[in-house]
Design a protein that fits this description.
Distance between the termini: 74 Å
Structural class: alpha+beta
Oligomer: single chain
Number of domains: 3
Strand content: 5-15%
Radius of gyration: 24 Å
Number of helices: 10
Largest sheet: 3 strands, antiparallel
């Protein structure tokens, strides 16, 4: 498999993979072609780059695979280009990590942002960060002028969070919200006072 000293071959492979993947994910065919040009057979390239090239092939794409667990989770999210659940990220990372460590990174590393109850993405994507269901309902009521119908609240909260409708209804019946005589929901007076500083 190797026609020259392994250390030199590893160094050359890393130069190729880093130059291709440093800007972000690339096509697997592109990576395989560049590594084959170093003298490898096509069928051994995926194993070689995974073991020594600090790269990983995922289907038709290739990503940088170096750094700590957070760096690798970021590479996966950049490749997927959409928020993912903690378990899905963990599954793609493979078996050699602790999900608790991953959870800590997702919660404390500023490069990650929570987009839903169990949806994580990258802060650089922008967008609103997930808050609790009650906080989201409160936002909907505020942006609707202080009151909103249950239909409006449910449609807006579903669009922002993807939680179950039954969960939204459960929070509406909680102490934070009040159903007015007009059939719309408002914040209870104590919550309004707390928000205005009274």
């Amino acid at each position: 498999m190797i026609r020259q000293p392994a250390a030199r071959y590893i160094r050359k492979t890393r130069i190729v993979t880093n130059s291709l993947l440093k800007p972000g994910p690339a096509s697997a065919d592109q990576l395989i072609g560049k590594v084959c040009a170093l003298g490898f057979r096509r069928d051994v390239v995926p194993q070689w780059v995974a073991a020594f090239g600090q790269a990983r092939i995922l289907g038709s794409g290739a990503i940088r695979w170096k750094g700590n667990l957070a760096d690798k989770a970021i590479a996966l999210l950049e490749f997927q280009r959409k928020p993912m659940g903690r378990e899905h990220i963990s599954e793609l990372l493979g078996p050699d990590h602790c999900i608790r460590t991953l959870s800590n990174y997702l919660s404390t590393d500023d490069r990650f942002k929570r987009f839903g109850l169990n949806l994580f993405g990258l802060s650089k994507w922008g967008g609103n960060e997930y808050r609790t269901i009650a906080d989201t309902i409160e936002d909907v009521i505020h942006t609707n002028g202080g009151e909103a119908t249950v239909t409006h609240i449910i449609s807006q909260v579903l669009a922002r969070t993807g939680v179950l409708e039954s969960s939204i209804r459960k929070y509406l019946y909680g102490p934070r919200f009040h159903l007015s005589d007009s059939g719309s929901y408002r914040l209870r007076q104590a919550t309004v006072g707390r928000l205005s500083g009274r």
